[in-house]
Structures are given as structure tokens and as C-alpha cells.
Design a protein that fits this description.
- The protein is an alpha/beta fold.
- Among the domains are: 135 residues; 64 residues, no CATH class.
- The chain is built from 14 helices and seven strands.
- Strands 1-2-3-4-7 form a five-stranded mixed beta sheet, with helices on both faces. Strands 5-6 form a two-stranded antiparallel sheet.
- Helix 8 runs parallel beside helix 10 and helix 11 packs parallel to helix 13.
- The radius of gyration is 22 Å and the shape is elongated.
- 33% of the residues are buried.
Length: 322
């Protein structure tokens, strides 16, 4: 059964095929096209229905001719049998579209990326299929709001791949102009992938935010269970390595404190932008360097209660001047 995080990544590519072209471009592969079409993942016209890719994107030119097909596979673990099925995906789609096909493997795991990059031998006479592999470290860091709004799905993926304060808030800001259903889905995706300490602060400032998209409602419980299991496993491993109870207690306390501070800073940025405050580089630097939880908590509350942008700016200036 596909995991929660696997389904999140698949959903992004199925929602907006252009994200596949953007990742290829980031890897130096530029395909001239005018639009990206999300194709059928069912390759049963030629082969058995058991062969289903995670996502299929068809890049088309101005005359609507297919110029490149992209098979997107989200891979979170090493699965040797994929070396048998991936070539089937590629040759089947190539026969259907009559154009070149790229196998794009996206993975959050470094060891999986190293495995997936190895050429797949198709025979004994030098015939190989070489996947294009994008690890989370290869995903662009989308920090510019204008860039994020041009392709919100890439901004969401960037926020998932890079646990960075500015990237997360930029992604949330970028999805704000989207239609309500789409915005709800992407916001849910971002929130489900944030650390619990950060997510709780943001949800508290969004009027008790509850997951609204069908996708997140279906998978959030599964994601929480996976998170608890991973957390228990990591905790046991870290505990054995540290070996001293005092060190574990100090580490947990520091981690909780840093998590709360990071969550409060994200909430400040999100609320400031929601109030249409134009944040300067000095503002961003001051917010990111703030560590006084009392001041940050008061600022979050004051920004939430500010009537308009003028009042919100006054609140922000007063807090940052302390």
C-alpha cells in the first residue's frame, strides 16, 4: 500500500504536470513546449493493467504535438523489481506518443537516489535505460514570491523538501490566490509535512484550522500513525547512541524550545503577509533572529487582532524595536 508521503508527492504531479518540466529544467534538461498535459497512468492499451506509473506528463508544442513524455515515479525505498517494470513504462509510453520519453524518479532518500541513478541493463550488448533522478536536495529552493506564484506546485514541493522558514511561508503565500478547493489541498499538503510544533502554531492562528480537502482528510490519520512510528524508532536509536539520561533530557528540552520558536516565527511571517505588510530584508532578518518566546507570542496575537495593514505594521515595528 502506498505510504502517506508517497501519495502527497504523487498528488502534486497529478495536479500540475508543469512541475515535471521545472524539475527537468533544474537538472539541465530543457524541453521546448507550450503546455504540459497530465496523461493517463494506465498503460493497459499495450500491456497488462498491473503496469501503472505514479504520474504521466506529456509536453506538447504549439501545434499540440507530443514532444516529450515524462513518466514520474515517486520512490521512497529501494525496490529491485522496478528495474523490470520501469523499462516497460518507458517503451509503452514511447509507442503510444511516438516521441522521446524520460523516466523521472523523485525521492526524498539519498540512498534511494544513488540506487535509482544506476543504468538499467536491458540486455547483454550495451542497451541501457538511465533514469533521471531528483533527490530532495536537488529540488530548487523557491524563496521568491513571484517565482512561487508562477508555479505554486513547485513552491509546495520546495517547502516539503527544505525545512526553511522563508520557503514554507513563501509557499503558503503563493497558494493564496488559487481557487478555494485547490488552495485547501495545497495548504493541507504543506501543513501535513511540517514539524508538529510549527504546524500547531500555524493552525492556532488560522482560527482553529482543520483539514478541509478530501485528500488530507483521507490520509492525515495515516500520516500521524506513520509519524508516531518513525518518531518512536528514531527516539530509541538516539537514546541508545547518547547513553546518558541527562543528555537526552537536555536535548529534548532544547529541541522543543527551538521548535516552538521556529513555529512562532513562521506564524509571524504568515500573519504579516496576510495583513498585506510589505516585509523588508531587515524585517525578515529581525524576525528570523528573534528568540524571545514571550515577545513572539505577543506579536502573533497582536498581528492577528490588527484591523488593517497600517495597524499591523505599527505592531510589527514596535515589537522588532525592543
Amino acid at each position: 500500500m502506498p505510504s502517506f508521503r508517497h501519495e502527497i508527492l504523487v498528488e502534486l504531479f497529478r495536479s500540475r504536470g508543469e512541475i515535471a518540466a521545472a524539475l527537468l529544467h533544474a537538472q539541465g534538461i530543457v524541453v521546448a513546449h507550450t503546455r504540459a498535459e497530465v496523461g493517463s497512468i494506465d498503460l493497459s492499451q499495450v500491456v497488462s493493467t498491473e503496469y501503472r506509473a505514479d504520474a504521466v506528463v506529456v509536453l506538447r508544442d504549439a501545434e499540440d504535438r507530443a514532444v516529450t513524455g515524462v513518466i514520474v515515479e515517486i520512490q521512497r525505498q529501494i525496490e529491485p523489481h522496478k528495474h523490470l517494470t520501469w523499462p516497460v513504462y518507458v517503451t509503452t509510453l514511447r509507442a503510444k506518443l511516438a516521441c522521446p520519453v524520460i523516466l523521472l524518479v523523485v525521492t526524498p532518500e539519498d540512498k534511494v537516489a544513488a540506487w535509482a541513478r544506476a543504468p538499467i541493463a536491458l540486455g547483454s550488448h550495451g542497451s541501457y535505460l538511465t533514469p533521471m533522478v531528483v533527490g530532495f536536495a536537488d529540488i530548487p529552493e523557491v524563496r521568491d514570491l513571484a517565482e512561487a506564484r508562477r508555479l505554486p506546485e513547485l513552491a509546495v514541493l520546495s517547502a516539503m523538501a527544505h525545512p526553511d522558514l522563508h520557503i514554507a511561508v513563501t509557499a503558503i503565500d503563493a497558494i493564496s490566490p488559487l481557487p478555494p478547493d485547490q488552495r485547501a489541498l495545497y495548504l493541507d499538503l504543506i501543513l501535513t509535512m511540517l514539524p508538529a510544533s510549527v504546524r500547531c502554531v500555524l493552525e492556532a492562528q488560522m482560527e482553529g484550522y482543520k483539514f478541509t480537502s478530501e485528500f488530507a482528510l483521507r490520509h492525515y490519520g495515516q500520516g500521524r500513525q506513520e509519524g508516531r512510528q518513525e518518531g518512536r524508532q528514531e527516539g530509541r536509536q538516539e537514546g541508545r547512541q547518547e547513553g546518558r539520561q541527562e543528555g537526552r533530557q537536555e536535548g529534548r528540552q532544547e529541541g522543543r524550545q527551538e521548535g516552538r520558536e521556529d513555529g512562532l516565527r513562521i506564524a509571524v511571517l504568515a500573519l504579516a503577509r496576510a495583513k498585506h505588510i510589505l516585509l523588508t530584508d531587515d524585517d525578515l532578518a529581525a524576525i528570523e533572529s528573534a528568540t524571545n518566546q514571550g515577545v513572539l507570542t505577543e506579536l502573533v496575537s497582536a498581528l492577528g487582532n490588527a484591523r488593517d495593514a497600517v495597524a499591523a505594521r505599527a505592531v510589527l515595528d514596535q515589537a522588532l524595536a525592543r
